[in-house]
Design a protein that fits this description.
The protein is an alpha+beta fold. The chain is about 35% helix and about 25% strand. The chain has a five-stranded antiparallel beta sheet.
Length: about 110
């Protein structure tokens, strides 16, 4: 390709680098939007969930990742003993999907 043909791709009346600055600004704006609308809320939600898992105590009602609903009867390190119906189950703390304290109403999903 000849050098004089490259001038056909530059913006009219402006410097050849002006388009690059606008492009970089647009890319930074898109990355900022993704960060504040998608990434940051997800990180905050995960942090809040980890805090709730550490605060589980006896008597809390929990829902496991598998959908089992039960009441915590014993807490030991990273294992919880649940009473669900007539059965007692031992689950890992990381497998808890939702924690409800006694008397708390479940939130509706949006």
């Amino acid at each position: 390709m000849r050098l004089d043909a490259l001038f056909l791709f530059t913006p009219a009346g402006g410097s050849p680098g002006g388009g690059m600055a606008i492009f970089l600004f647009q890319m930074l704006a898109i990355l900022g939007i993704f960060y504040f609308l998608i990434i940051r809320p997800k990180v905050q939600q995960e942090k809040k969930h980890r805090e709730r898992l550490q605060q589980i105590k006896r008597g809390d009602e929990i829902v496991t990742a598998g959908g089992i609903v039960g009441e915590v009867v014993h807490v030991k390190d990273d294992k919880l003993t649940l009473k669900s119906g007539e059965a007692r189950l031992v689950v890992q703390r990381e497998r808890v999907a939702d924690v409800r304290s006694p008397g708390e109403t479940p939130e509706k999903s949006k």
